[in-house]
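step=encode ok
step=design start
structure_in=
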């Protein structure tokens, strides 16, 4: 967020009923504060999906104050001419809450729903290895638990290594071109797992899948940031990762049918599982070429609407561009097909103010991943058959969806990202203590299943932290790189997680591994506290410097500073 300098003029609430604000070229030298059309006031939006929407005046002005309302500060944040949406930028544009809310619903339907469908396709091809395990996958390929661990490590390492290069390619050619290409390529590899013959082919396919899927998530996040404001993005990323959970449920249900194909044409059920789900992703990847516009003002195509308008008319494009830019002027820093140079890459990587978030990405999921990764295998070991083991994964997935959405909504309601994120660790504490103190060998299998289900239903703060990283980047360049680096940290945590439960610990139901998970969880609580302390300290330091400056000095700073992104004195970190 950025400090908004004003001239002390009171903001006036107005309605757009019966009046039209004519679009003009904004000239700071001839525009005075008195000539700026009246601005609106924020409305109290519902923060939880179970709340009723509070009544509001749909004709009230929704255009909120920003740096563009003072001609002197507006000059410092003017979008460059080469930015793809500059032709729709108009600091004098005004719109109503009725128009904005209707437009947000339209963006959700046109952009967000398809993003969720693509993510579900990725999850199907990434996670169906869990269903294959219940169908004698390891014995038939003459592999053991350590081979499976190695496969997961190879996948995540390949995924990690592909993150940054993929993000750079996406920024250069555009996510609307690169993401569909990724999907088509990885779907071919996913389908090819039908012909796996042993350990070597298994590892090769996991490596290729990781390389081709790597970068998909940060690519999508950057893409969505073109359309949504910060708080909107946090909540929608909650739905985005909910789509992953829905895919896990669908995967379990599909496995119920596909694994029963064992014997068809003389092949195992897990082979049909890989083939059919891979072909499904191929279809979605081809459709993505048609359904992903390059940006808010580039939706026109033969498939996305007739004429020059595409999905959105001129009025809607003006609202889309200006409402996002008024909240975060840094989103006009780069063209959506502008490549990032080596110098800009290095500048982004050494941005130490984002390192605390990378640290969170590295550790926050470790206490939960091994338990989930081995769930179907553990259920088989507890005496459940193939189809029971797959269906018993559904309850925790539903619980995980509910808690993840709840914590994402709560983070925006209470404006405390750190406190809501650390609830995941507090949630897992009693269940991991149980795994460490109980005699699991003599515990009823349904009790073990219940505790495991509750542990894996933890309120995942991943959507919060991804949006948190995006907010604290404060520039398109940094947001592009940091999204990839954060996700690389998450994938690194996956590599660590994949090697905690080992074959020699299996007989004791992973007693040693559970001790390690509990220790890491306790460490994570401390890490979250340190991240909070760091960002509070940074903001107070900047507040002190900013308060010591006169208004003229502040304007001079805005006009002459070489500070960029989150290094600006008028920027405050979210926490």
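sequence_out=
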């Amino acid at each position: 967020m950025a400090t908004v300098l004003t001239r002390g003029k009171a903001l006036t609430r107005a309605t757009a009923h019966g009046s039209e604000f004519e679009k003009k070229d904004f000239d700071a030298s001839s525009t005075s504060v008195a000539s700026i059309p009246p601005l609106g006031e924020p409305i109290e939006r519902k923060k939880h999906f179970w709340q009723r929407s509070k009544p509001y005046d749909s004709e009230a002005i929704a255009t909120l104050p920003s740096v563009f309302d003072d001609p002197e500060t507006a000059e410092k944040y003017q979008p460059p001419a080469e930015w793809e949406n500059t032709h729709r930028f108009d600091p004098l544009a005004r719109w109503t809450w009725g128009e904005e809310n209707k437009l947000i619903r339209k963006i959700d339907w046109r952009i967000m729903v398809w993003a969720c469908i693509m993510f579900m396709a990725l999850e199907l091809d990434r996670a169906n290895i869990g269903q294959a395990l219940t169908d004698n996958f390891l014995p038939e390929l003459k592999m053991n638990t350590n081979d499976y661990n190695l496969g997961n490590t190879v996948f995540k390492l390949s995924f990690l290594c592909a993150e940054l290069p993929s993000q750079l390619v996406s920024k250069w050619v555009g996510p609307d071109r690169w993401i569909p290409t990724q999907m088509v390529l990885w779907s071919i590899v996913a389908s090819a797992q039908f012909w796996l013959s042993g350990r070597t082919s298994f590892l090769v396919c996991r490596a290729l899948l990781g390389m081709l899927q790597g970068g998909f998530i940060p690519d999508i996040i950057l893409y969505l940031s073109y359309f949504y404001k910060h708080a909107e993005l946090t909540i929608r990323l909650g739905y985005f990762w909910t789509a992953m959970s829905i895919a896990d449920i669908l995967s379990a249900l599909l496995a119920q049918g596909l694994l029963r194909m064992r014997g068809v044409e003389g092949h195992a059920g897990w082979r049909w599982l890989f083939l059919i789900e891979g072909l499904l992703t191929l279809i979605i990847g081809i459709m993505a070429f048609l359904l992903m516009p390059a940006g808010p003002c580039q939706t026109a195509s033969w498939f996305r609407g007739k004429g020059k308008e595409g999905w959105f008319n001129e009025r809607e494009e003006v609202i889309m561009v200006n409402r996002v830019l008024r909240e975060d002027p840094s989103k006009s820093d780069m063209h959506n097909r502008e490549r990032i140079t080596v110098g800009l890459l290095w500048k982004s990587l050494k941005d130490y103010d984002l390192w605390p978030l990378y640290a969170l990405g590295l550790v926050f999921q470790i206490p939960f991943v091994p338990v989930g990764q081995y769930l179907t295998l553990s259920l088989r070991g507890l005496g459940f058959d193939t189809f029971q083991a797959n269906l018993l994964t559904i309850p925790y997935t539903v619980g995980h969806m509910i808690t993840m959405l709840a914590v994402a909504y709560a983070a925006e309601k209470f404006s405390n990202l750190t406190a809501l994120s650390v609830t995941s660790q507090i949630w897992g504490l009693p269940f991991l203590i149980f795994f460490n103190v109980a005699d699991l060998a003599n515990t009823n299998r349904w009790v073990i299943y219940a505790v495991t289900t509750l542990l894996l239903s933890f309120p995942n703060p991943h959507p919060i932290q991804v949006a948190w990283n995006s907010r604290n980047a404060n520039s398109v360049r940094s947001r592009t790189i940091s999204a990839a680096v954060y996700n690389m940290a998450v994938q690194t945590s996956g590599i660590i997680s994949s090697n905690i439960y080992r074959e020699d610990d299996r007989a004791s139901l992973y007693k040693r591994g559970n001790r390690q998970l509990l220790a890491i969880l306790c460490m994570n609580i401390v890490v979250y506290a340190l991240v909070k302390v760091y960002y509070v300290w940074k903001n107070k330091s900047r507040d002190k410097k900013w308060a010591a400056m006169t208004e003229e000095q502040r304007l001079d700073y805005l006009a002459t500073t070489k500070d960029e992104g989150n290094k600006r004195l008028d920027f405050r970190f979210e926490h």
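step=design ok
step=annotate ok -> The mean pLDDT is 83.
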